[in-house]
Amino acid sequence: MNLKSIRNFAIISHIDHGKSTLSDRLMEETKTVSDREMTPQLLDSMGVEQAHGVTVKSRTVQNTYRANDGQDYQLNLIDTPGHVDFNYEVTKSLSATDGVILLVDATQGVQAQTVANWRLAHELGLPILPVLNKIDAASAQIDEREEQIRQLDPTLANRQIYHISAKTGLGIADLLEAIVHELPAPVGDESSPLKALVFDSEYDAFQGVIAQIRVIDGTLKKGTALQLMANGQKLLAKEVGIYQPNRVPVNELTVGEVGYVVTGIKNPKQVTVGDTLTSQSQPTETALPGYQQSQPVVYAGIYPVDDYNVLQEALQKLALNDTSLVLTNEQSEAMGPGFRAGFLGIFHLQIIKERLETEFGIQVVVTAPNVSYRVQVAQKGQDIQTVTVTNPTKFPDFDQILAVEELVVKATIMTPSDSVNQLMKLADDYRGVFMDMGNQGDYVRLVYQMPLSEIAYDFFNQLKSLSHGYASFSTEAIGYQEADLVKVDLQVNYVQVDALAFVTHRSRVAEQTQQLVHELKMTIPRRLYPMPVQALVEGRVVARVDVPPLRKNAAVNGQAKSISKKQALLRRQSANKRQAAQSDIELPQAVFNALLSLK
């Protein structure tokens, strides 16, 4: 298609503002999908996406639209997630677009992820098309929400803000005309050597890695000998095609078009997202800049309930299509072989766990998530070393530690004024340091400096609960700062359980350990004898409780013996049973969930 008739765009919004529904209406209006094939949230094809009502994985779809001027246009929609945990997916999508639709809910207004996604688009210099959704809702506040959008971006001060209802299709025709006439066409040279951006990838068991690409210059034809510029990997374009939204083979992809190429490469690590694809016979001179790879934010151990090999195969399959999932092998004395996995956030962890259960039928035990720390270690006769610790069991001994640094983020909370006091108290409880406060339309903006370890677990849920769902939250990494942190070890029946270890601030040790041992008292499976559960910090027991036995196993044999002899027999029985059971401690998922309940 003519380069001037192509539009590559994405939709960015806060979660639940109607982005997936708008995608459905655009495909419906352009007849990309027939009425028989049309289903709600068509681009959210994974079960977990439909169950939670959120987009997890970016998707691409090519639409053909005949505008009012009688000309056909190719509209390449590159879908984006709205949840804060999947910002990396948004970054990948925006790198392949020439403009964005900024979608705002008329009932909720500009929220934290709206601002975060707008900032990503603004930094890339992408033109923005403002759209107000759900204008037919009874609680819609159109004038106030338009003012919020104009305050967000000064360049939108005199721009028309389009009003739509993605649910009913109201205003979709006008929006399509705006996409054609207000968003720019791609720029490129068809006569130049092939230069294509690999902005995403998926894995097929039969066809290998399928790279999703945007052609910047030149033409990509089926059967062309190609190479990746980052590592020099050579490949053959076994098939090229477009998404509608399923894969549709075509003969070629020209400059400005978005589609896929079947590489046949069986090792997914050889295809790097952000790499430049070019021709072997006539390669381009300069590679595209690409973008920074995703970095895990939280880490957790994943252990199988049954078969380790089945879990290994399932996780490897998930990692093939989720480049943000980082896996390393791990061996726990209590849990056996498993994996230490890095995630973009707690919701990402939850999605992976649910996919293991629903798509593969595997029951797993997931340890309490933790973040990374930097520890300065001094050993006799050696120089001072700084090590990064992502697993509490690898935390150095306390007598070798000079200093511990934790990752600190700048947290921005957008909340209605009636929730300000509760949320400020919440931030203080999570070791937040107040930085700034201001007004943004009808909302109050609170800015705090907070340790990532404090907000990685349930802070977002507490925030939504206290604000009745109206507050929103975004973070921006600041860096590592020194803090008084210690490692807490847990012993069950005098045996140290490495999978239960965690790192916390010294000021919280007494409160958290007392709460934890009493939680474990109710969740650890009982035996025929009492089992002590105790927490240790720097070699010292700081909290202890006994798990009560199932029943008293007294020396009841019908013989008349003195109380002292019965007690001596009980002590010998208990000692023998403990000795036999020390290596047979079973920990269900509820034990690790107790760690998440700590305040």
Automatic annotation (TrEMBL):
It holds the Pfam family GTP_EFTU_D2. It is an enzyme of class 3 (hydrolase). Residues 4-187 form the Tr-type G domain. Its EC number is 3.6.5.n1. It catalyses: GTP + H2O = GDP + phosphate + H(+). GTP binds at D16, H17, G18, K19, S20, T21, N133, K134, I135, D136. It comes from the Bacteria. Keywords: Cell membrane, GTP-binding, Hydrolase, Membrane, Nucleotide-binding, Protein biosynthesis. It is found in: Cell membrane. PANTHER family: TRANSLATION FACTOR GUF1 HOMOLOG, CHLOROPLASTIC (PTHR43512:SF4), TRANSLATION FACTOR GUF1-RELATED (PTHR43512). This is Elongation factor 4.
